[in-house]
Amino acid sequence: MEAVHDHSHDHHVPTGIMRYVTTTNHKDIGSMYLWFSFAMFLVGGVMALVIRAELFQPGLQVVEPEFFNQMTTLHGLIMVFGAIMPAFVGFANWQIPMMIGAPDMAFPRMNNWSFWLLPPAGILLMGSLLAPGGAGGVGWTMYAPLTIQQGMGMDMMIFAIHILGMSSIMGSINIITTILNMRAPGMTMMKMPLFVWTWLITAYLLVASMPVLAGAVTMTLTDRHFGTHFFNAAGGGDPVLYQHIFWFFGHPEVYIIAIPAFGVISEVIPTFARKPLFGYPSMVYATASIAILSFLVWAHHMYTVGMPVEAQLYYMFATMLIAIPTGVKVFNWVATMWKGSMSFETPMLFAQGFLFLFTIGGFTGLVLAVTPIDIQLHDTYYVVAHFHYVMVAGALFAAFAGVYYWLPKWIGKMYDERLGKIHFWLSLIFFNITFFVQHFLGLAGMPRRIPDYALQFADWNMVSSIGAFGFGLSQVFFLYILLKAIRSGEKAPEKPWDGASTLEWTHLPTPAPYHSFETPPDLRN
Amino acid sequence: MKTTELDKQNSHMLRKLIVVALVMFAFGYALVPLYKKICEVTGVYDLIKPDEIVNTQVDETRTVMMEFDANTRSEIGWEIIPLDVRMNVHPGELVHATFRLTNPTDMSFDAQAIPSYGPQHAVQYVKKLECFCFTQQKINAGETREFSVVFVIDPSLPSDVGTITLSYTMFEIEGTKNLGNQAFNPDIHEGKS
Predict the structure, then answer these.
(1) Helices A346-369 and A239-273, interaxial angle, to 10°?
(2) Is A75 designated active site?
(3) Using beta carbons and an 8 Å cutoff, which residues of A are at the interface with B?
(4) I need a surface site. Which of A16, A167, A377, A456 has the fewest CB within 10 A?
(5) Are B88 and B172 members of one domain?
(6) Of A144, A152, A151, which is closest to residue A234 (Cα–Cα)?
(7) Whole-angstrom Cα distance, residue A280 to residue A212?
(8) DSSP letter, residue B107
(9) From CA A271, how far away is CA A124, in angstroms rounded?
(10) CA of B129, closest CA in chain A: separation in Å?
(11) Is B164 found in the same domain as B69?
(12) What's the CA gap between A244 and B28, in Å, rounded?
């Protein structure tokens, strides 16, 4: 990603750090998003390892329970808002202008702002650990009334969420405007690459749901300091109301994470199966259906609050309905590979890993959608296993697939294919060692977010912790692969993937020049 | 020029999307009254209203164990306990349970009790005729007082429910706290502020 530097022909561009502070170039900003998210991924990963180290054996050995709670909270917030979401915004910045034939994003200066809001938010989140009383130990969902009782670390977290929300909303406005207004002539909506489509839909989800989260944390803040009683039962408020507002944001949020991942997979699988994506229009409609349904199912996260049975039935069936468009997508990916001329380079391996493991995560999601089962499994490790299958094996594996797939285009150098494959197999095996066994723990009744557990859970917890450390080390290995490619990677051929058919591969040289498509390509014919 | 045309379109789009974001922020706040309204309409808030009794036939063949529990949610040291922890009652029978509240502090304040039930769905079968939870209670400094609840268990209670726990949490209403008529105690006062 440093390599784009060589191709900068603009002599007004400041050099060194100021280049990155002042840049309005979508490629620079995309790189910064990706590096920031990778740094946050490592920080959040270390927090996960603190959690797994404590859970290696029953009893309290490594950390105090309060600190354990802070770790689970910050791990969740940092991974969701600091790692996965910025990673896909990084992909969007790099790829969307190149894939639709636009010279840059619609609002380059706002783009710079969207990125530079992230580091202060990251510092606030991590710095809250140093506040008196530590960070908020409330879980990433920040449920009231516990949030009302925390120290000032909680306020720092609330401000961090505000800043991250502003960044996401600005980024989304930029993405929507770019896609709707700046496509090259002939790039009609239904010709857009699916990655662009998924980001258009995700950006709408973000604009509609992030402000609701901002409202929820603002209410928490005013409850804490300004005498309001939105969630404080003693003042006539209702803690369950917080859960409704939070999950009205929170459920679209899980699709905000998953849908761009679908987009990446929808680019990678056709390339390596050397066939066009099967059922392109149905993919678009399925994605849109998932997005709309995601606003109508939020209370399936709260079956245990004491809802009327009619409401439980509605949320159960509406949730199960989401399996239909998701099934359409999985079917189309499989059908794309059917009789394809497949090869299994690293991006394709990660796409296959995604397909298998995300589908498992989808099925456990269906299990959890069933109200009576969910009441049994609520807040157990089964839920933890479920959402790590869709977040890690889903979103993260898709991000890895995307990085390996587009890295040659970005830096003009190849990664080491052998090391990439080793990274994939290590990630796949250690991921399953870590999280598959958590299904057993959850079914046996082990609650989440507790630093200690009963003796009968000891064996699988030890296995899970060993897997977690293996998974963590595999990601340090990924950093090595990246650095090796950037420093001493072989020069990438013009088109390293012969099956690739989107504009950045067919209309631009490798590596992509610093300024691309200053005159839009004409795609009408 | 073409770029200015595009800029105009872009800023038009920007304004529209900012409006969407602001509307959704307001929607988050609109959920507060909406939620209250839905709770009222669907009867979630009926916990603090007297119930009407339709069937007063006592079912002597069946005995249900009632358990009572009470807590306070406040930072100052007052407490409430049930005088009877357990009672065997027949469905349809008029039951009278008493709770004792002690406020050893020199504060007076208003309090509100909120009932909850275990199992949760027992809520619709415990018909309260009279309850101290129906109104806010004025608690005086240094006071000890007994509160009562009168209820009937609906005979249509499902046969698999053998035990019902009725638990009250008493909340101090914020902003109603006053230093009472007892001697001024700076320790308690400062500890609180």
Answers:
(1) 150
(2) yes
(3) 106-107, 169, 172-173, 176-177, 180-182, 207-216, 219, 229-230, 232-235, 238, 241, 244-245, 248-249, 306, 308
(4) A16
(5) yes
(6) A144
(7) 32
(8) E
(9) 41
(10) 23
(11) yes
(12) 10
Contacts B120 to A, Cβ<8 Å: 306
Which pLDDT value is given to residue B182?
46
The nearest CA of chain A is from the CA of B36 a distance in Å of 9
User: Which residue in A424, A435, A437 sits closest to A354, CA to CA?
Assistant: A424
Q: Are residues B75 and B114 in the same domain?
A: yes
Find chain B residues with C-beta within 8 A of A169's C-beta. 21
Contact A252, A212 (CB under 8 A): no
Indicate if the pLDDT at residue A96 is higher than 80.
yes
Instruction: Give the pTM.
Output: 0.86
- Using CA coordinates, name the residue in chain B closest to A228: B174
Same domain, B166 and B95: yes
* Candidate from B14, B28, B73 with C-beta closest to A177: B14
Tell me, yes or no, if A301 is annotated catalytic: yes
CA atoms lying within 13 Å on the CB side of residue A28? 26
Are residues B125 and B82 part of one domain? yes
What is chain A's Cα-based Rg? Answer: 23
Please answer yes or no on whether A215 and B29 come within 8 Å at the CB atom. yes
Helices then strands (H, E): number in chain B?
2, 10
The answer to whether residues B111 and B142 belong to one domain is yes
Kindly state whether residues B43 and B11 are assigned to the same domain.
yes
Total domains in the fold of chain B:
2
Residue A103 in tokens: 């010279």
pLDDT at position B136: 86
Residue of B nearest to A245 (CA): B28
Q: Which of these ranges, A7-11, A125-129, A217-221, has the smallest mean pLDDT?
A: A7-11
Residue B153 sits at φ, ψ, to 5 deg, of -90, 125
Does residue A382 carry a catalytic annotation? Answer: no
Residue ranges making up the domain that contains B75: 64-176
Please tell me the least confidently modeled range out of A338-342, A377-381, B105-109. B105-109
The answer to whether B131 touches B99, Cβ cutoff 8 Å, is no
Residue B1 has pLDDT above 60, yes or no: no
What single-letter DSSP state applies at residue A339?
Answer: T
Same domain assignment for residues B128 and B82: yes
What's the pLDDT band for A214 if we cut at 50, 70, 90? very high
User: Which phi and psi angles does B144 have, rounded to 5°?
Assistant: -120, 130
